[in-house]
């Protein structure tokens, strides 16, 4: 089963946007993530609707942050991209009348619900400014060496 990497990818993009001296176009972000610009526009639309980014068309346009990184969390971004499934695990519904299946599903559903809530609680504690600070510390430790996507932009 393929993993859903939208959250990680959008966090990556938002930090790049923060570092950029100008707006980044959907084409540039698409090249950065090796995906179609239409996918970028569709995903970024949720972030724009929540007021985290803006977009401008034309020369000098592109995606820009609408607020400082300390004003939104991992949870905010997770919600803005549509709350993709956190776990690949699911409940069986092949035999809904089976008492064994019912017992298994109740316990699994409870455990998965608790685990999901713990993770979302952690997401709420981490701002994008926290991620940026980690990035800056790593950058300083590695002598201004950035990831491949940013080197290609230069």
Automatic annotation (TrEMBL):
One of its GO terms (molecular function) is DNA-binding transcription factor activity. PROSITE patterns: HTH_RRF2_2. It holds the Pfam family Rrf2. InterPro entries: Tscrpt_reg_Rrf2 (IPR000944), WH-like_DNA-bd_sf (IPR036388), WH_DNA-bd_sf (IPR036390). It comes from the Bacteria. GO terms for cellular component: cytosol. This is Transcriptional regulator. It comes from Labrys okinawensis. The lineage of its organism: Bacteria, Pseudomonadati, Pseudomonadota, Alphaproteobacteria, Hyphomicrobiales.
């Amino acid at each position: 089963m393929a993993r859903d990497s939208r959250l990680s990818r959008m966090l990556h993009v938002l930090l790049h946007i923060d570092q950029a001296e100008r707006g980044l176009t959907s084409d540039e972000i698409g090249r950065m993530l090796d995906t179609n610009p239409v996918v970028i526009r569709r995903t970024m639309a949720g972030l724009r609707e929540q007021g985290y980014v803006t977009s401008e068309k034309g020369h000098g346009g592109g995606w820009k942050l609408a607020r400082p990184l300390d004003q939104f969390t991992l949870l905010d971004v997770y919600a803005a991209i549509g709350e993709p499934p956190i776990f690949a695990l699911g409940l069986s519904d092949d035999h809904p009348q089976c008492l064994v299946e019912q017992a298994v599903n109740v316990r699994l559903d409870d455990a998965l619900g608790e685990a999901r809530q713990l993770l979302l609680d952690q997401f709420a504690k981490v701002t994008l400014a926290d991620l940026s600070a980690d990035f800056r510390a790593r950058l300083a430790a590695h002598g201004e060496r950035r990831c491949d996507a940013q080197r290609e932009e230069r």
